Amino acid sequence: MKNTLMIDRLSIEKMDKRFRTNLINCISGFKSLNLCGTISTEGVTNVAPISSVVHIGADPPLQGMIIRPVSVPRDTYQNIIDTGYFTLNHVQEGFYKQAHQSAARYDRDKSEFEKTGLTAEFINDFKAPFVGESIVKTGFKLIEEIDIRSNGTKMLIGEVIQMHIPESFISDDGYLDIHKAGSLTVSGLDGYYKTEIIDRLSYPKPDKKLESIG
Amino acid sequence: MKNTLMIDRLSIEKMDKRFRTNLINCISGFKSLNLCGTISTEGVTNVAPISSVVHIGADPPLQGMIIRPVSVPRDTYQNIIDTGYFTLNHVQEGFYKQAHQSAARYDRDKSEFEKTGLTAEFINDFKAPFVGESIVKTGFKLIEEIDIRSNGTKMLIGEVIQMHIPESFISDDGYLDIHKAGSLTVSGLDGYYKTEIIDRLSYPKPDKKLESIG
């Protein structure tokens, strides 16, 4: 029998800062792992790992991400506000260490692309750089900036402008097989994971048995 | 050589609705998978799968989730607004089909817990039900409701009030091993995945080599 802890609000407050940061960053569950590509008005490219991307809607095609303007990745935030564009690029196993390293606080006049050995790829005159190594890349235009009053963070909402995805990973029904593409998932601040398919399930209706559509 | 598609804004608009919904729901990357437990003012419990939970901050401990009030899971939204409390419960392989099924549009006077065979568990007088089957459970108090103007969705921000987690899954540094706990991750609307650890990496600093801390 496992010993289940009951952790209340007061014991969270009393935790060591690093302990609390690790624990609270894990309780949401597995997170998406993207590299966010941007460029400054001076032309310096920037790349930073983001695990806070969240689906907002499909029509119009919108994704959001949480960003802390006064902390890392502040360059990412400033570049998006200044230029209005950013890219999100799935991270695969071949470059997850560079992705993790790109979160280091480099000087603002240096490109994290150069520092980490990742490739800034400009495609079709899109204003922000994609990550050349990534298999699944999406370019966004900033359309809404939201203040989260509870802790001074922001949510940036981007509209999908263009996607670059190998055709073979897209099913007939539009499902994108990001497992086959090798996209990773992250837990907390630093735990990297591959995936293993269990199943795809049919649309749920009352009194109808679920079927595998995998 | 893989044939990489360039999908632009216009081709997204022209897509069949279901195709677009599947594709855009996949491009964020792997998502967390939680069951959200709530109760109505009439005492009817509700449970619904949520893949839009996002980390907002560790101090104070905050998580957010995107919710579409005019659609499923509207009961979840209304219950949270009415009572001010909700729970998020990681989904493991033993009950992922019930989790998926709980998204079906049941009548509002019936509990999805009963309909799907999941257990509504009330702990320590917390106002919202936890999911008895879940290994990682967190109870939240609603502290902020945010309108997303771009598409009429909302983000609800919850503050962590209590957590119920087996002690053996929490490392000395606070890292919660949700892989060992068996928590699943989801892609798109209906793809369920287990995970496989690659590594935990040390804190990234300029000019310092990353180390495995796994």
From TrEMBL, chains A, B:
Its cofactor is FMN. Keywords: Flavoprotein, FMN. Residues 38-168 form the Flavin reductase like domain. Pfam families: Flavin_Reduct (PF01613). The keyword Transferase does not apply. InterPro entries: Flavin_Rdtase-like_dom (IPR002563), Split_barrel_FMN-bd (IPR012349). Belongs to the flavoredoxin family. This is Flavin reductase family protein. It comes from Mangrovivirga halotolerans. The lineage of its organism: Bacteria, Pseudomonadati, Bacteroidota, Cytophagia, Cytophagales.
